[in-house]
Specification:
Elements (H helix, E strand, L loop, with lengths): L4 E5 L6 E5 L3 E6 L2 E6 L11 E8 L6 H15 L4 E10 L2 E12 L3 E12 L2 E10 L3 H13 L6
Antiparallel strand pairs: 1-2, 3-4, 4-5, 5-9, 6-7, 7-8, 8-9
């Protein structure tokens, strides 16, 4: 995997964030604005990936309640989801919520899912970075660089 990041700008949603130069990118699939995934390796493994979703929220939605309802939805959809850490952070000059979780993938075992949620105007943005659990320590710099580099449409 390349350590070089380049700025990606979504053509219709307008947000931007840094991504590894050699990762595959697909836009607007299955409710996701962006899916970016590491190229295949020779050995079978969970391919690290970044998924960005953008959701219309309305004017009254607060970050904390929206992020908590998103976490509840994960608990219902992922096998044996465990919350490892929750934190309030800033992305750029916007308050955000970070959640580090772990779940079991039916083929590859443990997966770490780290998500950053933020509200900008009436839109909610979630940057989700998934890695095999045993690769998380090697890739935390990447997941953090991607999330910290998110810039919603202005």
């Amino acid at each position: 995997m390349s350590d070089e990041l380049e700025t990606y700008r979504h053509p219709s949603a307008g947000f931007e964030l840094p991504l590894p130069r050699d990762w595959e990118q697909s836009e607007n699939i299955h409710g996701c604005a962006l899916v970016s995934i590491e190229p295949p390796r020779e050995d079978p493994h969970f391919r690290p990936n970044v998924v960005v979703t953008v959701e219309a929220l309305g004017a009254d939605v607060e970050l904390e309640s929206w992020a908590e309802s998103s976490l509840d939805a994960l608990r219902e959809s992922l096998d044996r989801l465990r919350v490892i850490d929750l934190d309030s952070v800033d992305i750029g000059d916007l308050p955000a919520r970070r959640a580090l979780t772990h779940y079991l993938h039916d083929r590859f075992g443990g997966v770490n899912l780290e998500q950053w949620s933020l509200v900008h105007g009436e839109l909610g943005y979630v940057v989700s970075c998934s890695t095999g659990a045993l690769e998380y320590d090697d890739l935390w710099w990447l997941t953090n660089a991607v999330a910290e580099g998110l810039r919603p449409r202005t």
